[in-house]
Write a structure and sequence with these properties.
Blueprint lengths: L10 H21 L4 H12 L10 H14 L7
Pfam families: Sel_put
Length: 78
């Protein structure tokens, strides 16, 4: 029995909103380079699949990124 003043949202609209939200989250992660570690690991596994080439932990990766930016500060405003 419907309640007065309450509307339901069609499933297709909810699906479209979910897809848009996931797309926005994906775009934002790429924009702020939050996905850099995952992309680096995928690159390492594709180009250096041997076990002698270890994959760094996220902490090691970001430390190396920060060190590299400190050593080569071009392209930064601050």
């Amino acid at each position: 029995m419907p309640t007065a003043g309450v509307t339901t949202v069609p499933a297709a609209v909810l699906d479209a909103l979910r897809r848009a939200g996931r797309g926005l989250a994906w775009y934002t992660r790429g924009l702020v380079r939050e996905d850099a570690y995952e992309r680096y690991v995928a690159h390492l596994r594709a180009t250096h699949p041997d076990p002698d080439h270890p994959v760094p932990t996220p902490r090691q990766f970001w430390r190396e990124q920060a060190d590299r930016q400190d050593d080569h500060p071009e392209g930064r405003c601050c």
